[in-house]
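Encode chain A's predicted structure.
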Amino acid sequence: MYRVMLIDDDVPMLKVLQQMIDWEANNLQIVGTTYSSVKAMHMFEEVQPDIVITDIGLPQKNGIELADSFTSIKPDVRVIFLTCHEDFNYAQQAIKLKADDYLIKDQLTADQLQKSLEKSVTILKSRSGLIRWKTSNYNSQLFRQDLLKRVIDRAPSEMTMAYASQIGVSWNYPWFMLGIVNVQFANFDTRYKQSEYQLILYAIYNIALELSESFEGVTPILEKDNIAILYNFRMNLAQNATLHFSNFLQQLRSKCVNYLKIQPSIVSVSDKMELDSVGPAYQQILQGKLEFYETADYTITDISQSAAPIFQQAPQGFLNSCVSQLEQAVIKQDLDGIHSILLEIARNARESMIEPSDFAKELSFMLRGIELMFSNLKFEEDLFKYLTLSRTLSDSMELIERKLVQITESRDKQGTSTTQEPKLQVIQQYIEQHLADNITSIDMARYLYLNPSYFSRYFKRMTGLTFTDYVHQYKMKLATKMLKMSNQNLESMAIGLGYSDRTYFSKVFKKYVGTTPSEYKAKHTARK
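Encoded structure for chain A:
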């Protein structure tokens, strides 16, 4: 019997996987399940599974990094990835991961799961075609990150150049140019989930790495939230170095569009710099957000003249008047009005040079206010994360406008949805009757005598949400009322709502409400 381990930070998904097929009938045994990537490492060493099914978009350590660690411990382990979106084939082409299969959560059927497992078992039996991530490639990333750290720390140039040579990076010339590649979230959000952000960043890095083989002197380095591109060159009348680097960045952008269907934003320094100037320039751009009120593709031709902008702290109540205006525009379904108000907000921010992080906070407060106005509608928490990370004003405003338009359009559809879909009331009653249970879409489908795959598609079409998200939202609304009106402790509240683990309950609460249960209770207790 082959041993299987399941990893997903969405606990109900773990239950769905366990219920989906008859594991023993397929000569398979589930030997471990966990929602934590940290726990997954310990569990893997303990249970030594033959097959691992893991979500890619895990916090702390993503599925790719876990798989790399697993194969270094047990080279013949088989890996099957779970992903959230339909167009993963784009990222798949870019990343070139060697896994047995990629399964899309929202479309997963028992037949698909069974076929993927059969593929893994066949490989295990033959012991051929083993998954072997190139550990040297992974180590190469770490070495390059260490190289960038030396550049930022302004280690002696000769020592840094020598280290670069040791790790296979050829920096033979005196001059450097710099590029910093970021994700545009308004573009990213239309195709991917927030949990897949690191995966897509990794995909862009792989594209840059492969492309750099055709561009002498170009060194891509993967960082936490961006990709640094260092170009080492010499002054040469036979070659225009600025054009060479510009061509690389243009091709990188084009390949990201072709493979990933997203447009990256790129800040480049075309000024020639000595190595000890590269680190300060890199930090100045990242920390100062030099491009925030510029364009997504911003070129600095003279770094010595590009001092950090003098940003201003956002005045108290900076966006207060806009909340009521936007609420009225949403109520009236006035899309032109929404657009005009957001243009005015952007214009005021640019004229006042509001500090970007302050501006992101003010925008988040404004959106929370609109949420409270329309309690039956909710912005996804991804939006608030993107606003914090966004590098440009245009990216932030496009994100917000699209979300407000979606809310306006959903309000237009809401009036008829209840009468058209009578089963929603039955579903809500079932949830209320099973609050203390960990309900999955399979449980609900069985209750309604529906095929689980059909029910998942039916429910998504009816509500715009996955069943798991709907249940979490429903329970978190109840939790907020309970925190306001009772002195019940968090442990008993979590159990009463079907969350056996207080930590997981708090994590879900923060995801859907925006604060931890303790913070929420303290805030509303203070108001009494």
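The two ends are 60 Å apart (CA to CA).
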